[in-house]
Each structure stands twice: as structure tokens, then as C-alpha cells.
């Protein structure tokens, strides 16, 4: 028996291969199934089983494509209401993969239709549990994503109560030695306090996971519903897309229109310019948003751009452009790209000014400061007492809250989000300079030292 964990760092997502006797089960696969196919070829094994622990909100799964390519059976809870060919897999039901057994445990809480998968080894002993978004290392799944989407919905309070019973009556009753393999790690928006560790054990989680400590149901509900991170715009869209089954990765990404460098953009629409901020500042299209290529590009794209909203995608070079299209496809947004090009368009006439940092430090009161960090970050520490506080995902809709009687300085915590924020603010104001404080924010908010 072999368990292999695959990590998508951009989405802090873990997927898994369980291999026994040349048969493979894949749990919670990414949109592009190639890595699982290559693993199977390398080990001369056959993919027979694909399991979805629930309809994911933060990424598009490749379960349907993998099933079609390998004639593998997809297993998912009946509560999902999946619209693709599948076999239901719920409490107590078992699948044999080679010489091991996979048993379903219904674990609602993050979603009403969540299952965890208990792995029984060749001797029938509990070896590992694949917990999806129910139990993470250091946390449990947030309960506020399924109030209005999916076949089954529930209020966050009801789901929090379900999670209380899931953890206490299902997962915590497993033997302490059982390995815990979650679907996400630190950086995911599916929880609020995920550990950097990629796996754990039931015993270790019972000792250290704050959500698993002794407390009443009411205290648990209050704890789990408080201070959850923001919900990106694309989450509900991805839940429904995963219930229906996404199109094939390669064929879908190849349909994206790639334009010749220098092409004049004809359609009116959103422009996502992913070039480095210094290039963007020197010349960009009117109404372009500077969402730089980076480790969390797909999450911020789906947080700023609405599902079904058409946009152009601009990159530095052709290789990077292809990578960005692939990242876009991970959240199912590739079909909203109306054109992609690997160079600045010919009409890139807009610029952003450089901030005189010394002058800003000397007289910050002469500027309107806009803080685009998340509410939880601001709550933890306000950097500028009189800043206008608007989280980046809400900025496009709340531009009228920003005074325009002074030059505007936009900041975040490290510099990445402020580039996008400054470009969005510049779209919405006229005749007022808009500056990006960028990495200089560290001079006002130095990172904590251990």
C-alpha cells in the first residue's frame, strides 16, 4: 500500500493517491488530472476509483475528466445531487482498492454533503482518514459557504452544530494513531487557522486543535462562526460547477483566444494586467487592474472578478501567459477570458505616479490613505489610524466611499494587494493622484520577530 499526497501551493490544496496491488484511488483531484495519470503510468498501476469528499468551493475538480479518461468510477455522497455519472458513497459503505478498503463516513459541517474516507489496511485496521474540508490540521472547515448554494443548503449555525457532532461523534472516536490527511493546508480560505503541517494524527489533533478541545455545543458554534475570512466571489460558482462536472482541462484552456502582441482590444471589458507593478505603472490600458502574477493569483482573480464577467488577460511573455491561463482554469474562469495576449497593447497610455515616500512620512495627513487589507487584519492592528478601510474584494463596489480632496495612497500588508487596489482606485477617480505604497508598508508595519 502506498499513499501519495499532491500539493497545489497556489490554492493550498492537497489531493491524494492510494495505491494497492496496482490499483489506484484518487481523492479530491485538481482540475488538471495529468499528475495522477503520470503517477499511474510510473507505477504500472490502473486508476479505478475517484472520490469527491464534497463539491469544492475553492477549486474546480478534475473528477469527471479523470473518470472519463480511465473508465474509473466516481464516488460521492448522495446528498451532493451530482449531475454526472457516479456511484453514491455514504455512511458505512465500502470500496475495495487492491487489498485495502475505503469506508465512507458522513461528516457534515463544512458542507451538508461532506464525507470523510477511512482507509483500512490489508489487515482491516484503521490506518488513515481523508477528511476533505471537515477536519484540517489545527482547524475545522468553515461552516458559512453553503447557505445559498448546492443541492442541500443550511445556515452557518446549523452547519456549525453539525460540525460539533461530526468531530465529537465521528472523527474524534477514531483511534489516536489514525493518520489525518486533509484537503487543505495553511493559506486556504476554507478555514481560519490551518497549520503549516501537511498531515497529522487523530491523537495529535485531539491535543492541539483548538476546535477539538472540550467545550459546549454553544461555545463551539460561537467559536467556529467567529472571525472567518472573506468569501471570494467565485466560491458559489465553483460549488455548482463541481456538482455538474467541469469540461476537460486541455480542451477548455485551448479555446481561450490568444491575441497577437500589439493587438488593439475591440470589446469593452475588464482588463487584468498581470505584469510587474513597475511595468504597469509606466504604461497600461485605461481601466486595467494590475493583478500581478504570484502564488495566490487565482484566489485574488476570483475575489475581484465576478463569475460570468468577461475579461482580457495580459502577461509579460507567452510562456507566462499559458501558465496564467492554466491558473485561471483552476477556478473555472478560463471561459470568461475574451482575449489573452503576451505583451502590453498598443493603446497602453495610462500611467501611475511614484510616491514621494519622504514627503508621505513627513505629512501623512496630507493624503487620503486607503487600507485594502481584510477585516481580520485591520482588527488585529491598524497601521494608519485615519485610513479608509475597504477590503480589496469589495473595492470595486465601494469606490464612492473614498474622499477625493487629497492625493490617495493605497496600502495592504506586504505590497501585492496594494498594486491591484491602487489600479482599481485610479479607475474610479479623476484628477486625483493615486499612489501605491507597495513594499514600503514594511517601514510602517515591520513584520513581527520571533
From TrEMBL:
Residues 265-317, 363-449 form the Rhodanese domain. One of its GO terms (molecular function) is sulfur dioxygenase activity. Pfam families: Lactamase_B, Rhodanese. The keyword Disulfide bond does not apply. SMART domains: Lactamase_B (SM00849), RHOD (SM00450). The keyword Ribonucleoprotein does not apply. This is Sulfurtransferase. InterPro entries: Metallo-B-lactamas, Mito_Persulfide_Diox, POD-like_MBL-fold, Rhodanese-like_dom, Rhodanese-like_dom_sf, RibonucZ/Hydroxyglut_hydro. Transmembrane segments: none annotated. Keywords: Metal-binding, Transferase. One of its GO terms (biological process) is glutathione metabolic process.
Amino acid at each position: 500500500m502506498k499513499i501519495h499526497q499532491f500539493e497545489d501551493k497556489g490554492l493550498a490544496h492537497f489531493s491524494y493517491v492510494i495505491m494497492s496491488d496496482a490499483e489506484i484511488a484518487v481523492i479530491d483531484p485538481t482540475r488538471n488530472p495529468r499528475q495522477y495519470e503520470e503517477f499511474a503510468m510510473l507505477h504500472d498501476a490502473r486508476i479505478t476509483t475517484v472520490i469527491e469528499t464534497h463539491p469544492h468551493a475553492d477549486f474546480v475538480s478534475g473528477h469527471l475528466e479523470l473518470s472519463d479518461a480511465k473508465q474509473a468510477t466516481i464516488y460521492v455522497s448522495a446528498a451532493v445531487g451530482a449531475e454526472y455519472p457516479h456511484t453514491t458513497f455514504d455512511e458505512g459503505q465500502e470500496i475495495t482498492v487492491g487489498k485495502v478498503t475505503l469506508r465512507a463516513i458522513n461528516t457534515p459541517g463544512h458542507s451538508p454533503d461532506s464525507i470523510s474516507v477511512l482507509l483500512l489496511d490489508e489487515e482491516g485496521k484503521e490506518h488513515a482518514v481523508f477528511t476533505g474540508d471537515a477536519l484540517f490540521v489545527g482547524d475545522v472547515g468553515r461552516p458559512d459557504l453553503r447557505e445559498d448554494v448546492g443541492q442541500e443548503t443550511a445556515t452557518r449555525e446549523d452547519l456549525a452544530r453539525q460540525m460539533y457532532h461530526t468531530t465529537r461523534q465521528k472523527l474524534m472516536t477514531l483511534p489516536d494513531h489514525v493518520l489525518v490527511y486533509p484537503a487543505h493546508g495553511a493559506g486556504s480560505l476554507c478555514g481560519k487557522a490551518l497549520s503549516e503541517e501537511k498531515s497529522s494524527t487523530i491523537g495529535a489533533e485531539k491535543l492541539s486543535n483548538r476546535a477539538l478541545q472540550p467545550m459546549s455545543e454553544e461555545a463551539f458554534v460561537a467559536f467556529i462562526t467567529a472571525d472567518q475570512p472573506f468569501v471570494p466571489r467565485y466560491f458559489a460558482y465553483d460549488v455548482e460547477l463541481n456538482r455538474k462536472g467541469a469540461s476537460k482541462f486541455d480542451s477548455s484552456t485551448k479555446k481561450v483566444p490568444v491575441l497577437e502582441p500589439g493587438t488593439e482590444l475591440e470589446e469593452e471589458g475588464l482588463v487584468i494586467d498581470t505584469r510587474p507593478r513597475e511595468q504597469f505603472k509606466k504604461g497600461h490600458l485605461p481601466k486595467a487592474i494590475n493583478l500581478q502574477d504570484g502564488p495566490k493569483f487565482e484566489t485574488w482573480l476570483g475575489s475581484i472578478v465576478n463569475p460570468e464577467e468577461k475579461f482580457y488577460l495580459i502577461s509579460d511573455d507567452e510562456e507566462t501567459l499559458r501558465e496564467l491561463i492554466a491558473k485561471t482554469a483552476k477556478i473555472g474562469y478560463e471561459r470568461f477570458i475574451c482575449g489573452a495576449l503576451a505583451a502590453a497593447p498598443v493603446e497602453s497610455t495610462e500611467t501611475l505616479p511614484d510616491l514621494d515616500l519622504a514627503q508621505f512620512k513627513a505629512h501623512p495627513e496630507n493624503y487620503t490613505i486607503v487600507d485594502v487589507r481584510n477585516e481580520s487584519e485591520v482588527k488585529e492592528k491598524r497601521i494608519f489610524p485615519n485610513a479608509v478601510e475597504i477590503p480589496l474584494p469589495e473595492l470595486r463596489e465601494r469606490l464612492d466611499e473614498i474622499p477625493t480632496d487629497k492625493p490617495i495612497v493605497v496600502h495592504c500588508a506586504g505590497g501585492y494587494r496594494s498594486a491591484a487596489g491602487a489600479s482599481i482606485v485610479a479607475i474610479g477617480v479623476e484628477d486625483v493622484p493615486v499612489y501605491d505604497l507597495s513594499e514600503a508598508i514594511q517601514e510602517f508595519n515591520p513584520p513581527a520577530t520571533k
